[in-house]
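[job 4471] stage=fold_predict status=RUNNING
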Amino acid sequence: MKQEIMTITSQQQLAPRIFQLTLTGELVNEMEKPGQFLHIKVPRADMLLRRPISINQINKEDKTCTIIYRTEGDGTKIFSELSAGDTLDVLGPLGNGFDVDCLSSGQKAYVIGGGIGIPPLYELSKQLKQKGIEVVHFLGYASKEVAYFQEEFMALSDTRFATDDGSFGVEGNVGNLILEAIKEEQPDAVYACGANGMLKMVAQVFSENPNVFLSLEQRMACGMGACYACVCHVPDDETGTKSVKVCDEGPIFRASEVVL
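[job 4471] inference complete, writing structure tokens
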């Protein structure tokens, strides 16, 4: 983990409130695992807490990385108003990242994402494909209007879509797609990132699979495990006092390791 003033090379809006921002700097050399995140300082003196945003793509040859974020408050709104040539104070990469070493060439992975949980799955899928893993994507959005990155995922591998209102892909959530898919086959590993309800569904559907990896979303403060603001309880804890920290022990956990 390092801290660096990185330079913005481009920013574009992908959908309402969804932005893709590319940064360049030496910090890219530290980025290895898909699913890690950056802790970015808002460039305004009165906003002290950094914003955790997952890494969407890593390009070491160009020394660039890409993040995709949704504007939720003043901090991310300020990010959205920046342009090429502006700089950001970035800390990272943070978090453990997805385990891609549990699979070998020829095996199959399900990659499942919902809403703003989708971005880190793109770098994950790229790395799985490089290892010779067969990947199937299941992506869910609220509607066609807020869907993004469809073509990028489709260019990598088989991609299936669902929207809450049925305006794009299958109507409903990604659970409908998954239940249909597992009638034909079972994956060797499952990777998921999205809302807590979707992660619960994934954990339940694949409860017999030991290789189910969930990326948890929690509000964070320090991002380094010091403040205990992002703890998650663990199973089989009769005292109710044991927990793990999402920022530095996660954000990715095996489904069997956490209580959702």
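[job 4471] summary: The chain has a mean pLDDT of 95.
[job 4471] exit 0
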